[in-house]
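Structure first, sequence second, as always.
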């Protein structure tokens, strides 16, 4: 999926390197003024959504996020056979045996045929029972839902607030037929993986709001034909994509360092909880802008999963343009090295004003690390974006890298 941006001078001093325009796109700017500097992610069947998270905690998985199926890889790390390597790598699939839930904006439709057989049959809608009606009444009594902030293939997000104290919240509605993957808790109850992951994170912070990098899950309701999540919505804030855009298309190295240091700490926190986010990117990183130092928050755990020791995944969930090289070559990837790769992608897009990152272009050296960056920063990027996952530093090693010290 191609990503586009147009040219504009860095507003904070020396001109930033120019981004290469990858595809033609419509622009509202006049021919006289030239195209704007907006960072555009163009996709088929695109939908309208807000980039400003100061008005939303929109689960921002873009429509270029896809689920692709490759050959099966054993948990012991053994690679695929030659015969299996010849299988078609990018077969769309809605199911993941490694427990990932559906994202806010899936790329595939509900009519995609699964690897297990025919098309999904639509469930017959039944009248909600009294317990469902009671839950709905509880939701409406506790929270006020306002304007819609975003809508995608797997749900919609609305602004709102908690009536008791006017706390800003995001209310996320996910149709039940879009919750494909379940997690069974210790009591034998089935939950969506997104809910299970966020409950585990909430347990660590003892329910405190705003004390950790991941946004907090405040409440969730199982309402017959839909799942409703009530999430923390920091204000004022905006996603990193928008933050970069309003700052001239790229950030200064020192500011990027502040953001990356917080991201590394946040991903180590997830790793300690055996949680794999799977889709760390500009749109899923929230920047709180209420103070002089930007604060990082992580959003959209719709593709996340729980990690087992030495788990090796053979179905890719995430942004197709950011697939790690090992997926392209072996149809297999692991949580740690993939997270490090994604952090490298985020830093690359934060510092470079050229074409947005695509793994295939980077491998072919059509995208290169700027020589204008400090030597330590260049080394940090190179270690994150190593083609060989075994050559990448671990998250703990990144934390100790000279560039972040």
């Amino acid at each position: 999926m191609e990503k586009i941006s147009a040219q504009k001078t860095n507003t904070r001093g020396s001109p930033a390197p120019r981004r290469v325009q990858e595809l033609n796109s419509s622009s509202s700017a006049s021919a006289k003024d030239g195209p704007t500097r907006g960072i555009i992610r163009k996709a088929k069947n695109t939908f309208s959504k807000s980039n400003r998270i100061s008005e939303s905690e929109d689960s921002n998985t873009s429509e270029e996020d896809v689920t692709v199926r490759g050959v099966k890889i054993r948990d012991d790390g053994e690679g695929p056979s030659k015969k299996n390597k010849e299988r078609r790598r990018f077969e769309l699939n809605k199911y993941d045996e490694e427990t990932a839930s559906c994202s806010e904006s899936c790329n595939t439709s509900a009519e995609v045929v699964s690897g297990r057989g025919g098309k999904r049959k639509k469930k017959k809608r039944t009248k909600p029972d009294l317990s469902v009606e009671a839950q709905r009444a509880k939701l409406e009594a506790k929270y006020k839902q306002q304007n819609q902030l975003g809508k995608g293939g797997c749900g919609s997000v609305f602004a709102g607030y908690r009536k008791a104290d006017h706390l800003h919240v995001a209310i996320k509605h996910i149709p039940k037929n879009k919750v494909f993957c379940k997690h069974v808790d210790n009591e034998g109850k089935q939950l969506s993986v997104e809910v299970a992951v966020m409950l585990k994170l909430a347990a660590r912070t003892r329910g405190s709001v705003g004390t950790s990098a991941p946004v907090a899950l405040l409440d969730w309701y199982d309402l017959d034909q839909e799942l409703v999540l009530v999430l923390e919505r920091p204000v004022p804030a905006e996603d990193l994509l928008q933050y970069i855009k309003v700052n001239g298309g790229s950030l200064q190295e020192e500011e990027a360092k502040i953001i990356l240091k917080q991201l590394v700490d946040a991903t180590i926190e997830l790793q300690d909880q055996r949680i794999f986010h799977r889709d760390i990117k500009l749109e899923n990183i929230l920047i709180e802008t209420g103070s002089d130092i930007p604060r990082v928050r992580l959003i959209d755990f719709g593709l996340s999963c729980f990690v087992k020791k030495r788990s090796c995944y053979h179905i890719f969930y995430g942004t197709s343009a950011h697939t790690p090289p090992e997926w392209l070559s072996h149809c297999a990837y692991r949580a740690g090295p993939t997270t490090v790769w994604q952090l490298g992608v985020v830093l690359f897009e934060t510092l470079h004003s050229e074409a947005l990152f695509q793994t295939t272009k980077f491998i072919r050296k059509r995208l290169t690390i700027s020589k204008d960056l400090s030597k330590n920063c260049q080394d940090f990027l190179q270690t994150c974006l190593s083609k060989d996952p075994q050559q990448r530093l671990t998250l703990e090693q990144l934390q100790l890298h000279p560039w972040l010290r």
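Margin note: Confidence is low (pLDDT under 50) at residues 1-40, 42-64, 69-128.
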